């Protein structure tokens, strides 16, 4: 019997829980399409968007008691009525609670929404998809999400704990959970994934209204691990680690982050910028050398070809990170043109001196396509 979904939960002794593809997946294919169990409009936009369908809200259709939830129609107001009756009192003071406890107000609002929805949720936790293939989750599925509270929660945990105590004071009894379980729920929201973080991400998450779609960024083989990236991967390692510790409370241990810095794609910006200047000098020297011996045997042309290749590679590595400083007389578009020109020059020289099948020429051609 074939698996109902394109993924399955697996476990690795060193890396913990992860997902693997149950069959081959093509680039762009939707691996999971799921309706969010709980959602709130960011505070900045909560008066502008409908709390149910996310369309433009009508200014005169809102909750008169808490004045924090707006709707586009009476139909949408009715759709949230049962849940909102339970959350309304807690939402009245949520801004003050967030300020006093130094907790993110939208995290508190989402916790309130989930706790209210949970009190009405009798689902058994089995994942089921509707006729359109959209999975509808239950609170039992939310409880199965991973968290890393035992790692580096720090002050974030203390603030969330204080916020959890305050919101529980204004929620009806059927919505209550022990404070520590609410803290765990906050951590699960913060991670919100069965999948592991990695810089060689295989998937991208996109929101289409209330539906979350997870699509493949490249072809994936059956049994291959499925990964997501939680942060911007095009910054240097120290910045990535700092952001993960601050926002997700763990260190990434994917292959790129685990490799020795000297053997990794990750190079400090100052070192990379210095390397570009060094290679630029090498290229200029090689050009001068060729001008002096333009009629000499092919070995001098090969020196120029390799200088072109080294220069192009250094530029490519630098251009991956848009925050790396460039010289005052250059801009990124100019550097990209120089990179492509050097790859092309390398390829052209190799075609004459080494023949078209040379593997380095294939690499240059691949970079030119990119």
UniProtKB/TrEMBL annotation:
Q: Which residues form the MYND-type domain?
A: 50-88
Gene3D superfamilies from the UniProt entry: SET domain
Q: Which residues form the SET domain?
A: 1-231
**PANTHER family the record matches:** EG:BACR7C10.4 PROTEIN (PTHR12197:SF251), HISTONE-LYSINE N-METHYLTRANSFERASE SMYD (PTHR12197)
Keyword set, alphabetical order: Metal-binding, Zinc, Zinc-finger
Name one molecular function that GO assigns to this entry: zinc ion binding
UniProt cross-references to InterPro entries, sorted A to Z: H3K4_H4K5_MeTrfase, SET_dom, SET_dom_sf, Znf_MYND
Q: Where are the transmembrane segments?
A: none
Could you give one GO CC term from the UniProt record? nucleus
Specify the protein name.
Answer: SET domain-containing protein
